[in-house]
Amino acid sequence: MNAFDRPAQWLVLALTLAVFPACAASGPPPGFVLTDDADLALTSPDGATKLEQYTKETQDFDVKWQVWARRGDEMTELKPEQDYPASFRFTRDSQWLVRMQKTGSGEQDLYLYRAEKGRFASATKTSLGDLAWAYFYSRPDTRKMPRLDFHISANLLKGTEEAYRWLGVDWPDDRYLVISLSGELDRHPKNVMTKGLGDWRCRYDLTTGTFDVPAVFAKANAQALNWEIRRSR
Q1: Long-range residue pairs from 52-59, CB within 8 A, at least 24 positions apart, any chain
Q2: What's CA 167's distance to the chain center, in Å?
Q3: CB burial string 113-131: b at 16+ within 10 A, e below
Q4: What are the backbone angles phi and psi of residue 69, rounded to the nearest 5°?
């Protein structure tokens, strides 16, 4: 057998790497440390995914937070990186995950993730909170309302695991999210301490990716549009 009958070792190695590519290392980058706060860890209802939050102090003494979803030996980052820790809720089927992310004093945003091939990935191009606010300002009864500019907060109502039955509704399991919007006006009448929006609710359909306002929210939403705290005399 001559040299041309024997495959070159480099060729065998190249073919092996092509068939079995090296697995990229997963996990937080150097400098990020797993927080020891047990309240910031969460496991999905099916027990397959565990959320872990890691923190790092920058050279400017700021603190950065990353969230990683661990599934077996594989980890996936739930972006974006933030300046504060977050809290989470799964749907009962463990296919959807909502991140309730503090963004400042009295302010919060929402991010939506969906399980895809065993990993959680962003389900919307922009934050779920931004989408909810866009829906709010697009409605005939709210589009002329002054833009809120202080303590802007999008909140997820509890009840994702039991389809919000505590509200007295009979919705399908793992179908809807109920979002509450609140915010204030920096400019308001002198006889008012704060004025804005308080606990205005809408519903997000995970199947269609659309918002609506069920009749059960109509009365409370009308009151939310007139929210204010007057100064005592």
Answers
A1: 53/85, 53/86, 54/28, 55/85, 56/31, 56/32
A2: 22
A3: bebeeeebebbbeebbbeb
A4: -100, 120
Q: What percent of the chain has pLDDT over 70?
A: 85
Say which residues have a Cβ less than 8 Å from residue 121's Cβ, sequence separation at least 6: 76, 113, 114
* pLDDT in the model for residue 14: 44
CA atoms within 13 A on the CB side of 163: 10
| The predicted structure's pLDDT at residue 231 | 64
Q: How many CB atoms lie within 10 A of CB 152?
A: 21
Tokens 């996936």, located at residue:
76
Greatest alpha-carbon span in the chain: 104
**What would the pLDDT profile of 193-211 be if each residue is shown by its tens digit?**
677 898 999 999 999 999 9
Q: How many residues does the chain have?
A: 233
Quote the strand ranges of the chain, DSSP E. 33-34, 42-43, 50-57, 63-71, 74-77, 86-90, 96-104, 107-116, 119-122, 150-156, 176-184, 192-205, 210-212, 227-230
Q: What radius of gyration, in Å, describes the C-alpha atoms of the chain?
A: 24
The rounded distance, in Å, linking the Cα atoms of 132 and 141 is 15
Say yes or no to pLDDT of 165 above 90: yes
Which residues are 183's β-sheet partners?
Answer: 197
Please name the residue that has the structure tokens 């980052």: 77
The three-state secondary structure class of 194 is: strand
